[in-house]
Amino acid sequence: MYLLAFETSCDDTSIAIFRDRELVAMKTRSQIREHNETKWVVPEVAARIHANNIFGVLEEVLIESKITLGEINIIACTEFPGLMPSLLVGMSVVKTLSHTLAIPYLPIDHIEAHMFANYLERETNAIHFPAICLTVSGGHNELYLWKNMFEREKIGETLDDSAGEAFDKVAKMMGLGYPGGPIIGKIASEYTGSFHSIFPNVLLNKNGHDFSFSGLKSAVKREVDKRIDKNISLTEQDIQEIAFEFEQTVVNILSYKLFHAAEILGVSSVVLAGWVSANDRLCETIEREAKQRNYYFLAPIRKIYSQDNAAMVGILAYYKHQKTSSEK
User: Fold this and answer.
1) What are the CB-based long-range contacts (under 8 Å, 24+) for 180-187?
2) pLDDT truncated to tens, each residue of the chain (328 aa)?
3) What is the rounded CA–CA span in Å between residue 117 and residue 274?
4) Domain ranges (residues) in the chain
5) Which of 197, 233, 267, 316 yields a CA-CA distance of 20 to 30 A from 108?
6) In Å, how far are 3, 62, 69 from 26, measured between CA atoms?
């Protein structure tokens, strides 16, 4: 069985081909250069770039896989959540192909696909259920009690900004590029000082599972403005220290909420998903704490699988198809 998967939920045009659960080829075209000017994704601009890129990316992945459209058995696409103009580009192309090729179309939940990225290049029994899954990216920040492969319960979410959105906004405050996560992570890794917790650990109700990053973002803005008033502009030392303090504070909040939920619910398996799961400090911190607490820990095996990508869409589509077939 050959499966063709599309991901256009935000600013990456990504298409992948699977042979059953094996990823045969994937091509992703980023829009980072175009969005660097605004340091943010403008939905209408992103959709236009998707429309310009999507058929070129499709041709590239077909050439690399040496598979023709006529050999495709199933087609899948991210349908929600995401930027609606971007989603519509992918859905329009995929539904047209589904009709033209007379093959089934599978709509895919973007957040669920991020969770299923943990199955890529792993066996079906790789995830130990039940698990607490932290999904954290630019547009979402949730905690799920993942009961079994297709049953999950949202137990917490951000009440304002997501962690990824906060990274982007803090990077913009300091005049850095887009996306903010990788840039701040690199700069923070260059800081040689100690952590002084100059920003608040915004935990809301310590016994609850919800997040809030708007207060932390405001605290960073005040610190940036204070240092600019003092020095006219931020020094390299200022930027490194603020990046380090901010990143570590976000990591502390995410880690606390993840393990607190696992403890309260009596779960001994924790999972990361979403592009912030590619952050080295977050992954290392949670992996270290999981070992200390004797928890089973899993994160996507490659950083590219943490980002928005068609492979995660394809692996979820494969398992959805298997489930549907077994129920018939």
Assistant:
1) 181/138, 181/275, 181/276, 181/278, 181/279, 182/278, 184/243, 184/246, 184/247, 185/247, 185/279, 185/280, 185/281, 187/239, 187/240, 187/243, 187/244
2) 999 999 999 999 999 999 999 999 999 999 988 888 777 789 999 999 999 999 999 999 999 999 999 999 999 999 999 999 999 999 999 999 999 999 999 999 999 999 999 999 999 999 999 999 999 988 889 999 999 999 999 999 999 999 999 999 999 999 998 889 999 999 999 999 999 999 999 887 788 999 999 999 999 999 999 999 887 889 999 999 999 999 999 999 999 999 999 999 999 999 999 988 899 999 999 999 999 999 999 999 999 999 999 999 999 999 999 999 988 7
3) 9
4) 2-116+306-327, 128-300
5) 267
6) 12, 9, 15
Which amino acid appears at position 289 of this protein?
E
pTM of the model: 0.95
Residue 301 burial (10 A CB sphere; 0-12, 13-18, 19+): middle
- The structure tokens listed for 2 are 């050959």
- Which CATH class name applies to 128-300? alpha beta
- The beta strands (E) that lie in 166-323 are given as 269-273, 296-298
For residues 83 and 9, is the Cβ–Cβ distance under 8 A? yes
Cβ–Cβ under 8 Å, residues 202 and 215:
yes
CATH code: domain 2-116+306-327 is: 3.30.420.40
